[in-house]
Structures are given as structure tokens and as C-alpha cells.
Design a protein that fits this description.
With 162 residues, the chain is mainly alpha-helical. 70% of the residues lie in helices and 0% in strands.
């Protein structure tokens, strides 16, 4: 007993974070979609952020830098959220029986995860739109697997806004 105490004292367990390893059966790709749309929105905001003139006051330069860094952080954070939510669907929801219906499922997920990485590395509206479309494709697979054919995110445009 004493040796177990010594092991746990020197090698404490780390806290695990997971959606559900039971599995609970509560899955929805909407979290990945919202995260992908947030990445796209941050790309839009970064591209539209007016850079102050070189001789602008220091306060304006700092305000620009602050805003830009916040947009980048949100883009990075939501890229990670998108990856995590996709991983949950890929690893916990989809199973070998889905391969018959969706033979390209692994390739689709892999390419979508790579798109998330590309969006984290770049400020590229085409890549951001491609990410949202790839997440939509996965959402279509998900809902078809759940018996809902021809799924469409009816609120996507309103959620994204202008």
C-alpha cells in the first residue's frame, strides 16, 4: 500500500478531458460547424482590419496590434475546437459499419483535419470556406448515418452574418 502511495505522489494522474467514452450517444456536428465558421469569420475580420499609417499615434498602433492578436487567438482556439469536435465524431460516433455507406470517410476526416491546420497557419478566405464546406460534408454523413438524408444547415448564413 505504501508503494502505491509513493507512486501516485511522484506520478500524479492527469485530468482527462473527453466528450464521452461510455459512449453516451449524444453527438452533433454543429459544434465543429460553428468553430469552422468562427475561423472563417476571424479570417474575414483580419483581412478587413485597417492597419494604421506608419506615422499614426502609438495608441492607434497598439489598438491595431491588440485587435489583430485577439482575432488570431480566436481563430487558433476555434481551429482547435473544430479539430476536437471532428475527432469526437470520427473516433466515437462513426464505426466500421459506416465504412460501407461512406467508403471515403477516413480520407474525408483526414483532409478536413489538415484543412484546420492550414487555416491555423494562414489567413486565407478560400481555405476557410473550404473548411466550412468540408465540415458540412461530414455533417451530411453524420445525419445520413442517423437516418436524416439531405441534411442542410438551414441557419448557417444567419449564424455567420455579414
Amino acid at each position: 500500500m505504501k508503494s502505491l502511495f509513493e507512486i501516485t505522489r511522484w506520478l500524479p494522474a492527469r485530468k482527462a478531458h473527453a466528450h464521452c467514452d461510455i459512449p453516451c450517444g449524444i453527438y452533433d456536428p454543429i459544434s465543429a460547424k460553428i468553430a469552422a465558421q468562427t475561423v472563417q469569420k476571424m479570417v474575414l475580420r483580419i483581412q478587413n482590419l485597417a492597419k494604421p499609417e506608419p506615422n499614426a499615434p502609438a495608441a492607434a498602433q497598439l489598438a491595431y496590434t491588440n485587435t489583430l492578436s485577439r482575432y488570431i487567438k480566436v481563430k487558433e482556439d476555434h481551429g482547435e475546437i473544430c479539430k476536437r469536435e471532428l475527432d469526437i465524431l470520427w473516433q466515437d460516433f462513426f464505426n466500421p459499419t459506416h465504412l460501407q455507406k461512406f467508403p471515403d470517410i477516413h480520407d474525408t476526416f483526414w483532409k478536413t483535419e489538415k484543412l484546420v491546420s492550414k487555416n491555423k497557419q494562414e489567413v486565407n478566405m478560400d481555405a476557410a470556406k473550404e473548411l466550412v464546406a468540408a465540415v458540412d460534408k461530414i455533417a451530411g454523413m453524420f445525419w445520413e448515418a442517423k437516418g436524416v438524408p439531405n441534411y442542410k444547415d438551414a441557419h448557417a448564413d444567419v449564424r455567420f452574418g455579414s
